[in-house]
From TrEMBL:
It comes from Cavenderia fasciculata. This is Serine-threonine kinase receptor-associated protein. Residues 207-227 are annotated as: Disordered. GO terms for biological process: cytoplasmic translational initiation. GO terms for molecular function: RNA binding; translation initiation factor activity.
Amino acid sequence: MILDFHRVRVTDLKYNRQGDRLFVASHDDNVSQWDTSTGVLINKFIHPKRVNSISITQDSIVTPLFTLPIIEYDLYGCVTWSPSNKYILANVGSRVDIFDVDTRELVHSIHVIGSILNGKISWTSDQSMFVIGSNCTTILYENNTWRLIRSFDIGRRINDATISSTTPPDPHQIVVIHEETNKVIYNSISNYSTSTTQQVAEINGHDDPSYSISFSPENKSNIDYTT
C-alpha cells in the first residue's frame, strides 16, 4: 500500500493505539490522517510551520491545546508524550529535554556527549524503556529515572530508530534505518536484540534515503518512508 499526499519530506509516522489510523507529519506544514485498512486519506491538519514530529497520547482524554516555553523551537527534531502523559520529551542537538505537562516547566535534560540525536523517541509497550538514535548509536533509557540502560553501536549514520512492542518473556528488538554514501545512497533496515545488543537481521531498503520507521501496533510489520 502506498500513501501519496505530501509533496515534500515526510518526517514522522505514528499509529493510533487501535492501529486503524496512521498519522503522517511533513515539512509541507501538514499532518495527514489515513485509514490503515483502505489507505484512504481521512483528514489533514494544517500547522503554521513545518512539522518535525507528532505524538499521540496514551489514553482517550482530550488534552487542551498549549505551547511549551521552548526557546529553540525550530531546532527540536522530535516530541513525544511519556506513557503516563505526565511528561513531554523533546530532543534538540545532543540532549533530550523533559517537560512537566502540568507545570509546563523543564524538569530534566539527558545529555549525549558528542552526538546529534536523530529520529523519534520510541517507547516499549510495557512503558519501562524508550529508545533514541544518535549519529551512529542507538541508546536505550529507563522511564522516569532517565537512566541509560545500554547503547548499540551501529557504526553507520542513523536516520531513525524504533523499538518493538513485544512484552516479556519475548525479547524486544530495536530496528534502525541507516545509510552509506558511496557513489549512490544505500539504505538498509537492521534489527538488534535489546538483551545482547547483537544484530539479528538486516533488510535491504530503498534506493533513496529513508527518514522514518515504525512498528505496527500488533508488531507484525513495520512501515518506513522514503523520498
